Amino acid sequence: MIYFDNSATTYPKPEEVYKALDYANRNLAFNSGRGLYKQSSNIAEMILDTRKKIASFAKVDFNKVVFTSSATESLNLIIQGIDFNDGDCVYITPFEHNAIVRPLYNVKKSIDIEIIVIPFDKKTWHPDLQKIEEMFSIKKPKAVFASQVSNVTGFELDYQSIFGLSKQYGAITILDSAQIFGVKNPELNNSDFCVFAGHKSLYASFGIAGFIISGDYNLAVVKSGGNGSDSLNHEMPSKGFAKYESGSPNSVAIYGLNVSCDWLRNHNVLDHEIQLTRYLLDSISKINKIKLYLPCDKNVLGIVSFSVDGYLSDDVSSILSEEFNILVRSGYHCSPFVHEFIGSEESKGTVRISLGAFNTKEEIDVLIDALKTL
Description:
Elements: E1 2-3, H1 15-27, H2 38-58, E2 65-68, H3 71-81, E3 89-92, H4 98-108, E4 114-117, H5 129-138, E5 141-147, H6 159-168, E6 172-176, E7 193-197, E8 209-213, H7 251-265, H8 269-284, E9 290-292, E10 303-308, H9 313-324, E11 326-327, E12 329-331, H10 338-342, E13 350-354, H11 361-372
Parallel strand pairs: 1-11, 3-4, 3-5, 5-6, 6-7
Antiparallel strand pairs: 2-8, 7-8, 9-10, 10-13, 12-13
């Protein structure tokens, strides 16, 4: 099997992570802070240590790191925690995932917000900052969402310019860093919140993710319950990560994340992905029937989307899986607006190759040979 669906979840995980998960299930599956016994205290210390490791990637205080079960939960907590009012304008880029789009449209059912897609140049894929500023001046942004890297195309967005402009109009800014956090860490000086996912670029397991509170905006509490402290208080804590973390923490998954953070510190995954992406683009661009979805400067990282003349994207994926045991993703990839932008509707979305730390040039050669048979 050759696995090229790392954008969905990285696979395999480092061997150290597998061992850590097994160890944690056998030795660390206790509730943090719920007891005075040593095991409970040890779990609390381990979770704090993991929080500090995540904070170090983004150069923030560990109290700013909130753990959740998934990036989707993180985005729901953020979106539902914003004090939206009728008439508020929310801006998103055409590259955003349904983890942002659907919660926003869910809010729209009860609050009359306007959801506006930010304009990008269709050749360079750069944000049209002049037009964006005109839009902001007419319809002031309440919140602006942007991905660090597109999960469909691997395009690295100029989120800093977008957020810098957004801040001039007092917007709340939310960065979706789920595709790249840990491999290429974000600059958060213009971001109020940053979302990460353990099972993707952090090479941990499912069940652990979170967000970083990098600005001053105070979210409302939309999920509450016990967290092992101040139990006589009927309200959640008023600040810090404890305000948003209720219920039993996933100590097993958090320990796996702790170990994967160490692994990432000792492995240059970014350079490996850059080299593999260049090799893949150079190889696949020589196949005449392939249409690549790229900006003019070919600035993509770890993900390459394409279509094959005469085939729907799902057909290509099925052939690669059934005949060559090559696992790729096809279709719309839970991102509803990008396909009009890149023009992939005719092929019913794209075939997506997403690379990871354990892929090799030899695996790419096998893929290229398979695509030449179509």
